[in-house]
Amino acid sequence: MIVAFSVTPLGVGEDVGEYVADAVRVVRESGLPNRTDAMFTSVEGEWDEVMDVVKRAVAAVEARAPRVSLVLKADIRPGVTDGLTSKVETVERHLAG
């Protein structure tokens, strides 16, 4: 499964990069395949391990912010691995053709 999620601290002002970095750090230290872009962090793995990472990422932000917003989208497709790479490669192949 791939989960794309965004954790946003609320009530801390406009500059939230430091708080978001706390969440991304949790994801990167998890050892699961992941990518971060300007809007979301995607992480790939089994249901329980991915959801645990999301929960810990939210907790890292929650530890420093009075309120946290979480947006989450999941692609649940049993038996598929390396979706983070293969999905993008498929789109790139179509763009090149």
Keywords for this entry:
single chain, 97 residues, alpha+beta, 3 helices, globular, MTH1187/YkoF-like, UPF0045_domain, Thiamine_BP
Descriptive notes:
The chain has 3 helices and 4 strands, in the order βαββαβα. It starts with a strand and ends with a helix. The chain has a 4-stranded antiparallel sheet with strand order 2-3-1-4, covered by helices on one side. It is an alpha+beta fold and 97 residues long. It has helices at 17-29, 47-62, 83-96; strands at 2-10, 34-36, 41-44, 67-75.
Query: What best-fitting shape do the alpha-carbon axes yield?
Result: globular
Q: What oligomeric state is this?
A: single chain
Q: Structural class of the helix and strand makeup?
A: alpha+beta
Please give the share of residues in helix: 40-55%
Query: Averaging pLDDT over every residue, what do you get?
Result: 95
| Individual helix count | 3
First-residue to last-residue Cα separation: 28 Å
Largest sheet: 4 strands, antiparallel
Strand order of the largest sheet: 2-3-1-4
The stretches of 5 or more residues where confidence is low (pLDDT under 50) are none
Helix-strand topology string: EHEEHEH
Compute the number of strand runs. Answer: 4
Task: Determine Rg (CA atoms, Å).
Answer: 15 Å
In terms of DSSP E residues, the strand content is: 25-35%
Protein name: MTH1187 family thiamine-binding protein
Organism: Streptomyces muensis
Family: Belongs to the UPF0045 family.
GO cellular component, one term: cytosol
